[in-house]
Design a protein that fits this description.
This protein is an alpha/beta fold. The protein is built from 14 helices and 16 strands.
Length: about 375
């Protein structure tokens, strides 16, 4: 059996010609775009469009990378849709498109933007998932994640980016039924199995470290572009480069166990420019044994070792987005909003979506003692 290939390229900026060249060089060892796209195919590009944010915050996939991939797909004879669901309601998509440069990208290329409003019900492993119709109707999905740390799952890349195939606030249903990291990671792997992208190209030119993946994260110049037909293998390579040990990013280990990709580094063929994986010192959220405890067994500990949102009222603009994404609906909109933290499940969705970075994770002394949310 052939080992999956992960191709890595140094890319230091988003200058369009440089992005075009880097994408071509990253795809060459995989067989070029022609291996994946055939004339007449309907191709969905799935960038990370978490929220309406300035590009220098490194929250969303950069439009230069998206444009470079659109051009290649169209040259190969494919028709192109660009789609993702932001962290909040679907109605916020146009503002996210504008702020993230996607509107201009489609103007430049003739691609179309897809609204993830209609869904199809899927059931897998006893759980219900509502997947956006454009995802299921595409002949090929090209996954374009952003390289970021994540306060809950430790890292967000190829696999985690597919969570955006679930539209808008329907994501809240999954957070409610899978509040623990182990259960939520299994849900991410379910979505990977349902969506199964054919190609992933990760935007690691400028990513995040620290309390990502939203405004709480800190931009970090990784200078990297990587591509693979195996989403799990690509994530495993990037996770190691960030400084995580094998198995620490739980959803990658789970995906390999279920035969959905390769996370064992000795079974991955890393080609291209290996210096692209020299990320320097990265500020990482830390894994802990607590993350591996099932939610049913860890309930008493989760209640005692609390990681909860902390509001800085001076930064709050009263937009109400935190309340829109809260799975247990314990936030009352206002300026500032009110939190009933007794019902908080610690998913940190509100900290992700806050456009002003007014919400940050706060740990009590038990959480600090056992290493939760460090």
């Amino acid at each position: 059996m052939l080992m999956p290939i992960v191709s890595t390229i140094v890319c230091e900026s988003y200058e369009l010609d440089l992005a075009r060249r880097a994408v071509n060089e990253a795809l060459a060892p995989l067989g070029g775009i022609g291996r994946f796209v055939r004339p007449g195919m309907k191709v969905l590009l799935k960038p990370n469009l978490l929220a309406a944010a300035d590009l220098e915050r490194a929250i969303t996939t950069h439009p230069a990378l998206v444009q470079a991939v659109v051009e290649l797909v169209k040259k190969a004879g494919g028709t192109v849709l660009i789609g993702d669901s932001p962290g909040g309601p679907v109605k916020q998509s146009p503002s996210v498109w504008r702020k993230g440069g996607m509107t201009r990208a489609v103007e430049q290329t003739g691609a179309r933007l897809a609204v993830f409003d209609g869904v199809t019900w899927k059931r897998l492993n006893g759980n219900d998932y509502f997947i956006a119709n454009p995802v299921l109707e595409a002949d090929l999905i090209i996954n374009l994640p952003k390289l970021k740390t994540h306060a809950l799952t430790l890292y967000t890349g190829a696999v985690k980016n597919l969570f955006g195939a679930i539209p808008g606030t329907r994501k809240r249903e999954i957070h409610l039924r899978a509040p623990g990291v182990q259960d939520f990671s299994q849900a991410l792997v379910d979505v990977l199995e349902l969506v199964q992208p054919g190609l992933t190209i990760i935007d690691g030119v400028l990513g995040q470290e620290g309390n990502g993946p939203g405004m709480g994260g800190t931009p970090h110049q990784y200078g990297c572009l990587a591509a693979s037909a195996d989403s799990v293998a690509l994530d495993a390579v990037i996770a190691q480069a960030l400084g995580y040990r094998p198995g620490e990013v739980l959803h990658l280990a789970q995906a390999e166990e279920r035969g959905l990709g390769t996370a064992s580094l000795d079974q991955i063929d890393i080609v291209g420019e290996r210096q692209a994986l020299d990320f320097g010192v990265v500020d990482l959220p830390k894994a802990h044994w607590y993350f591996r405890v099932p939610s049913w067994a860890s309930a008493p500990l989760r209640k005692a070792a609390r990681v909860r949102p902390l509001l800085d009222p001076s930064k709050c603009i009263g937009c109400g987005r935190c309340a829109e994404v809260c799975p247990p609906e314990i936030i009352t909109p206002g300026h500032p909003p009110e939190f009933d933290l007794s019902g908080c499940i610690g998913c940190l969705c509100c900290t992700e979506i806050c456009p002003e970075g007014a919400l940050t994770p706060r740990r009590n002394w038990v959480a600090k003692l056992v290493g939760v949310g460090v």
